[in-house]
Amino acid sequence: MAEYISFQPSDFFSTKLFTGNASAGHAITGVGFQPDWVWLKDRIGTNNHSLYDSVRGVTKAIRTSTTGAETTTSGVTAFGVDGFTVGNNAMGNAANAMVSWNWKMGTTSGLTGGSITPTGYSLNTTAGQSIIAYTGTGATATIPHGLGALPGCIIVKNLSSEHWQMYHHKIDATAPEDYTLQFSAGARFDTDTRWNDTAPTSSVFTVAGNPTVNGSTVPYIAYVFTEKKGYSKFGSYIGNGNVDGTFAHTGFRPAFIMLKNSSTSNGWNIWDSKRQTFNPNSDLLPPHTSGAESDSANWTIDMLANGFKARSSNNEANGSGNTIIYAAFAEFPIVSSNNIPGVAR
Asked: What pTM was estimated for this model as a whole?
């Protein structure tokens, strides 16, 4: 059955490649919209992944490859109508090949509910994605996300320190709220100190009093996503340990895939449709390290018209009997509002 979408995925997510020049005032255009969240990585060097969003404010960087606090940098200095401007900070504008992954939110008023009132937010119910800033209380609390549907993925960062935390609705078949993942090489672990063993609802998600998600008076940022048919998928598959690997059906041709073997201590990887434009795609760009882009046979996949398929026998993307979780955003749905079907690469 065709997965119909009423908008173009590029309205709300895009990958933009550019060449940095290490100079202030370098305008990056061609994103296709004014982004609310920009994730940047130097592809050649070992500068950290750096993330910027409109809720925390331009120049405020956090890094998936460290547990460090938010810093003020000249990585991104402005959000523009068709992209963003970078400064002379190497995380955002090294004199190298760069990649940016960009999301658009937009609504900044009308959010209610929860026991914690957000200190700022931007949300997009059409695309099913929101950015929520809040201050922790140190005790179990609920936070509104504004999406009107059950979240498939919630990513939280303590802006003062601590590991990133991820809730993923396919990390466990029966009680995903009992588990968390971090941007590290560790496996999932069972704890009630992150999500309080409480499933999110269509209006709020729950955090316990742990400092990773809800320390008293500590500032936090949360990126929250619900699945939208033909645009985003937060799924899982069971690896088979074979080069003819498991197929993951997304309902669209992926533009972006972030993947983790949640059963083991293997790391993370991100693929996109711009850095490598053909199959098999074996580009390694792990969000939990500062490593440069490289080619790895352990991380080989095919990006297809309706999903992706593991093409490695290694644990990283296809460990036999392991649960592999992923977050994917579309390049082309199978059928979209322009009535043009998506095709394989």
From this structure: 0.95
